Amino acid sequence: MASTENAPLKQLYCASTADPVFSSTSKDFLPLLEDIRSPLVLILDPKTQRVGIIQGSNIHANPDSKDALPVQGILPPLYPEWLGDRGFLETHGLRFPYVGGEMALGISTPAMVIALAKAGMLGFLGTAGLTLDEVERQCREIQRVLDPEGLPWGVNLIHSPQELQQETALAELFIELGITRVSVSAFMNLTPTVVHYACKGLTRAPDGTIIRKNRIFAKISRPEMARHFIVPPPDNLLEALVAEDRLTREEAELATRLPICQDITVESDSGGHTDFRPMAPLFSAITELRDRSVSEHGFPYPIRLGLAGGLGTPQAVAAAFAMGAAYVLVGSVHQSAVESGLSEPARALLTEARIADMAATPAGDMLEVGAKVQVLKRGVFFASRAKLLGKLYQGYEGLDQIPAKDKANLEKKIFHASLDDVWKQTQAYLAEHDPKQLNLAKDSPRKQMALVFRWYLGKSSRWALDGDAQRRLDYQIWTGPAIGAFNDWVKGSFLAPLANRHVAQIGRNLMEGAAVITRTQQLRAAGFPMQPGAYRFRPRQLR
């Protein structure tokens, strides 16, 4: 048989009843571009050497008419469902590689999780700040709706170093309820709780394949944090869990062959607690770590990286997938959705936000260590008032040292009560919920000051949730710049009004738009000339 190894490729030609489009300003360009589910044929005009596009043409090895044009390439159909990792979709039973991130205090509500699941997306219930009973009630509410239909969903487990018993109790609850997807966040190191949940239920199939029952999504904002989740759990933690009868010997042995999790959410500049990391360097650094770990350990399954933070437009989502993200996670934008747990007045404030309308303020739960949260500053005074509290905390050793003028300002404009009254309220709360903190404050004026300041920093987020009209200027709304970009994008469209911002429509439009942007970039890379405005997708009702 003659070898065809060095045989030249034959030139292909195509002919179409429609005229080719050679410019992105042509009236026929947009319909061709947005019909992403149909293939596009790239042709070359021999006379002008311009690249054009035709849809649905007959392609032949030889020109069969004088109008036939040489083919430069063929772009296959492109679906939003295909932008991410197909294995991610298969593993979790999803239609889209799109995740609705967990948001504390139940801002990502059962209604939000259910709506995302029914749209073929994955939603995580936000549990931080909720009682164990509240978490159980909301989880059971979701289970009643989604489990009979076999639709996937998940729940959040946030690291609570000052409430480790609550953290452990939540993980035990998730195991008891049979919840198989948990997004863990704020973990600087692995804890027995995380290892227990990740490894519980590990088994072997008849063919020897290791099967996971529980799947962890680790939300990571630093490379040093990622290292703990892309390797097998430490032997000492596994041995301790076996000794406590929380894991079987087989589960512990199988755990040594797998990383803690297969899905890592790389979190860049986000709302709420954030390290303000830029997307590109962070994702690149963690990608390198992941690749080295997979190569070193030879895991039987891939470790997938998703991206979160700053994703409020189709361009941003397309960029995330272009970098190699297996999935995208959206948070800030969902806070303005109908299904959000935020009050309507707070959501209305979000619709007015621009990309520079955010500020970094002291975190209520980590005031003493100087942690920051990113919040909305437009339309409220919370950011400036929280910064003042942070400044006073850094400058004085106790409430008694604060100058009388500053103290009067605090009582009148921020607390709306005397500091003594606030301390009494704080004492009553801690006596019931956290006596240890109260004992620490007895001999520490600085600790007492921190607890008083945390009264305001903690309640301000509740005021936003409840829509407290008396405290509207003190709303603490965690959000990142993504909401500002989203508002610019949807201006004048059906998604601009608050009442139309349903998470399913938000997700579908971001994904559809990202696919169109991806198609636009494919055409540009193939030599098709793109003019300003070509990288634009307007929101529309999608099914």
Automatic annotation (TrEMBL):
Membrane spanning residue stretches: none
Domain of life (superkingdom): Bacteria
Family annotation (InterPro entries): Aldolase_TIM, FabD-like_helical_ins, PfaD-like_TIM-barrel
Domain [Acyl-carrier-protein] S-malonyltransferase-like inserted helical span(s) in chain numbering: 396-475
Protein name: PfaD family protein
Originating organism: Candidatus Kentrum sp. FW
Taxon lineage: Bacteria, Pseudomonadati, Pseudomonadota, Gammaproteobacteria, Candidatus Kentrum
